[in-house]
C-alpha cells in the first residue's frame, strides 16, 4: 500500500514545485494518472518570518508542528518540508513530531555522496547559509562546503524575499546567481546546492557554472520513493 505524504509548507512557490514534482513524476512508476495521497498545510509566510528574523527557532518549530499535526490528522504517514531555512528548527520538531520526517539536507547530502561530489556551494537565504543545517548533514557524509561572501549572501537573500517567493524570476537575478556560483567554483566547489526551494525556478542547470543539487525536486523524489516502499514490498 502506498503511503500518504504530508507536506509542511512555508513559502508558496517552493511548496508548489515540490507538490507538482511528486504529482508529475509519480505516473512513470505508478501508472497514469496516479500519485500517492498528498496533504499539505501551511501557515502564512508572515507568521514564519517574524520568528525567523528574531532567531526564535522554537517558535518556528511550533508552526511546523502545528502543520505536522494537521497533515497527520488527515492521514499522512510521514512529513516533508520543502523549505530549507526552517529546518533550523528541526531539533525542536523531531522529539515531538506525530509522524516521521524526511530531512531535506540529509536527502541532498545523500545524493551528493551518490554522485561523487566532495565540496558543495551552499546557496539559500542568509539564515540558511550561515546555519548548521547543511554542515551537520554534510559532515556525516564527509563532504566539504563553501558559502558565498557576506555581500553576496545579503543580495541573494534580497532576491529570494523580494522576488522568488513572490513568483518573480528575472534574467538579471539568474545571471547574478551564476556569477556567485562561478566564484564558488573558483574556490574549489564541484556542485551547487540550490538550498532555497524557489532557486530551482530561477537557476537553469544547462548554463550554470556547476552541476546543481535541486533540493526541492530531490526531496519530492525521496518522498515518492518512501511512499512507494510498502507497495514495492
Architecture of the largest domain, according to CATH? Answer: 3-Layer(aba) Sandwich
CATH class of the largest domain: Alpha Beta
Reported by name, the CATH topology of the largest domain is Rossmann fold
Rough shape?
globular
Q: In the residues, how many domains can be counted?
A: 2
Q: What is the C-alpha radius of gyration, as a whole number of Å?
A: 17 Å
Mean pLDDT: 97
Distance between the termini: 9 Å
- Run of helices and strands: EHEHHEHEHEHHEHHEEH
Q: Please state roughly what percent of the residues sit in beta strands, choosing from under 5%, 5-15%, 15-25%, 25-35%, 35-45% or over 45%.
A: 5-15%
Name the helicity range.
40-55%
Strand ordering within the main sheet: 2-1-3-4
Residue ranges: pLDDT <50 for 5 or more in a row?
none
Name the structural class. alpha/beta
Strand count, sense and barrel status of the largest sheet are: 4 strands, parallel
Number of strands: 8
What count of helical segments does DSSP give?
10
Write the layout of secondary structure elements.
Elements: E1 5-9, H1 12-30, E2 38-42, H2 45-54, H3 57-73, E3 78-80, H4 90-93, E4 101-102, H5 104-115, E5 119-123, H6 126-129, H7 133-139, E6 144-146, H8 150-162, H9 171-186, E7 191-194, E8 212-214, H10 215-232
